[in-house]
Design brief:
135 residues; mainly alpha; Cytochrome Bc1 Complex, Chain D, domain 2; 7 helices; 7% strand; elongated; binds heme C
């Protein structure tokens, strides 16, 4: 006969194993857990700066190992919010097309900057919404 204690003893661990199994299969089939900034980058930045942050020839500057963005890291929230429209030199190349501001909240801005830094800039800086608000 199935009593409540048999249920706790056998069924509960089985359910836990199934939950962990589904999680492991999910991670295995989807690679790693996705960075929260990735879908935002794809939606708002990728059409110009490229999937790998490579930019577009002399029209859009690269983000991959970009010296300009790395040395002006604290300006990133402002550039994303307000855009940039002045001649800038990125990794030795001059760019002079305007980038328009993009409407995002502080958390989204922080997630995009964090993703951009981890994938492309690779500085030791981090980004969060409190820092974004202060800039
Ligand atoms: C419509 C195309 C376009 C979109 C969309 C766009 N950018 Fe830009 N971005 C540019 C251009 C053009 C410049 C150069 C501006 C200048 O020369 O003044 C630039 C410059 C930059 C720079 C500084 C230069 C460098 O490469 O380090 C950063 C950082 C940057 N963009 C990040 C972003 C992020 C993050 C997003 C998405 C939230 C984004 N951009 C969306 C076109 C775009």
């Amino acid at each position: 006969m199935y009593t409540y204690s048999t249920y706790i003893k056998y069924l509960a661990p089985l359910i836990i194993v199934i939950i962990i199994g589904v999680f492991v299969i999910n991670v295995a089939t989807h690679g790693t857990i996705q960075h929260p900034g990735k879908p935002l980058y794809t939606k708002h930045c990728e059409q110009c700066h490229g999937e790998k942050g490579e930019g577009i020839r002399s029209l859009v500057p690269p983000l991959a190992q970009a010296d300009f963005a790395s040395t002006n890291f604290d300006s990133l929230p402002c550039w994303i919010t307000n855009g940039i429209s002045r001649p800038i030199t990125v990794n030795g190349q001059l760019f002079d097309q305007p980038m328009y501001g993009i409407k995002l909240d502080e958390v989204q801005t922080a997630n995009i900057i964090s993703y951009m830094n981890d994938e492309f800039l690779k500085t030791d800086r981090t980004a969060n919404s409190i820092w974004v608000k202060k800039q």
